[in-house]
Amino acid sequence: MRREEQIKDQFLAIPMRPKTMFVYSARTSILERIKYEAKTFKGTVLDIGCGIMPYRGLIESNPAVEKYIGMDLEQPTYYAHVEPDLKWDGHTIPLEDASVDCVMATEVLEHCPEPDRVLTEIFRVTKTGGRFFATVPFVWNLHEVPYDEYRFTPYSIERHLRNAGFRDIRVEALGGWNVSLAQLLALWVEFSKRGFARSVLRMLVFPFYALLVKTDRQPATFDGMENSMFSGLSVTARK
Questions:
Q1: DSSP assignment, residue 33?
Q2: Integer Cα distance of 160 and 85 in angstroms
Q3: What pLDDT, on the 0 to 100 scale, is given for residue 2?
Q4: Bridge partners for 131 per DSSP
Q5: What is the CATH number of the domain that holds 75?
Q6: Which residues pair with 73 in a beta bridge?
Q7: Quick check: 65 and 131 in contact, CB under 8 A?
Q8: How many whole angstroms separate alpha carbon 108 and alpha carbon 232?
């Protein structure tokens, strides 16, 4: 599969089908949040953990963005066939102080063994007044083993950002009760069963999965009661 087709089919236009259930709800909710936040980007944008850089075109379509920098590990677990613009060791960002206007890190912080250190580095390379945007999963199985470190709550990720020096921190849910259940069901089908049983379960679970996704309501607050479940988090902050 060509890179352009991979980006479209796996990130930008994922069809809702039985075989895509385990990634559909997560990646579409992330995409919608990126579309919204990318409108506020400007100047130089650093994409940490860029992978195959699926959102590069979307970000560069904003006329206020002057430069996009995709940064990833020297030897990433996945997508090693794509060369990033910049490589790092997972701890120190090889850029000057206050050298970028915006930083994004989608599904990255949960893989950082020292998130405070990474956020402090992000704060260092961001210009005063610059923006930081990130997403993290909550309802998700172990992945990129053994480099899966954390599942953040709204309060813990806000504290990490505040400790790094960020202000105007906003934490929002990517999905509510229904999407959380949908993701869990899809992950159960995809990873707990094999062969013929899995293909049959996909077809049986799919109608309920689709209904859950379409009827989901994202919690506006986090109260530990009715609004106590979320599939993942989106965070924004300013330096």
A1: H
A2: 27
A3: 79
A4: 102, 238
A5: 3.40.50.150
A6: 88
A7: no
A8: 12
Cβ count within 10 A of residue 82? 15
| Residue whose pair of structure tokens reads 């990433």 in the numeric block | 76
The predicted-structure confidence for 4-57, as pLDDT tens digits, reads as follows 888 999 999 999 999 999 999 999 999 999 999 999 999 999 999 999 999 999
Whole-number Å distance between alpha carbons of 190 and 124? 40
Structural domain range at position 130: 3-238
Beta pairing, strands 167-173 & 232-238: antiparallel
Three-state SS at 133: strand
Task: Considering only CA atoms, give the Rg of the chain.
Answer: 18
For residue 172, give every residue at least 6 positions away whose Cβ sits within 8 Å of its Cβ, in sequence order, or none: 33, 218, 233, 234, 235
d(CA 133, CA 103): 6
- In the chain, how many domains are there? 1
Is residue 96 within 8 Å of residue 82, measured between CB atoms?
A: no
Q: What tokens appear for 114 in the block?
A: 């020292």
DSSP class of residue 218 equals -
Task: Give the residue carrying structure tokens 């992978």.
Answer: 51
SS3 65: strand
* Residue that the structure tokens 């120190």 belong to: 92
Q: Amino acid identity of 43?
A: G
**Contacting residues for 161 by C-beta, under 8 A, at least 6 apart:** 119, 132, 169, 235, 237
What is the helix (H) or strand (E) element at residue 156, kind and residue range?
A: helix 154-164
